[in-house]
Amino acid sequence: MPEADAPSSAEALYRALVVGRARTPVFAGAVEGADGAGEGANPLCGDRVAVSLRRDAEGRVAEIRHESDGCAICVAAADLMAETVSGLDAVAIGALRSGFEAMLRDGAAATSAPQRDRLGLLNAFADLHEYKSRRKCATLPWSALSAALAPDGKE
């Protein structure tokens, strides 16, 4: 029988991914020769994210990096976002962002199984739907990514 205060599998996933990626981001830095760059900031808490990327000939993200200064949620969200969007085009990224934001707003239970599958590692943030003030921490990197994908560098 599990202990009453043992973490659930969702909590364990959160700890492993979010805390680990916040401490040691895999996609931190800047892309040399980037063809897209964007920034996002949350003046209320001080989180800041810069995203740089390079696209391949078909318009898919070939390389992406972030420079994030913020809370653990923001840094981890930027890193997991970068991993998840690698190889995708702007249309697929837009659909993924919409699904991620819906999950944050409504929770995993309201998200379809196919969408949860597409979100992959980003499902670690599912419980943030209970903490409205923390959702911006997780979505800020997506704003920077949208700006990086836009022709004028603005979301």
TrEMBL record:
Coiled coil: none annotated. Pfam families: NifU_N (PF01592). Signal peptide: none annotated. Residues 14-137 form the NIF system FeS cluster assembly NifU N-terminal domain. It comes from the Bacteria. InterPro entries: NIF_FeS_clus_asmbl_NifU_N. This is SUF system NifU family Fe-S cluster assembly protein.
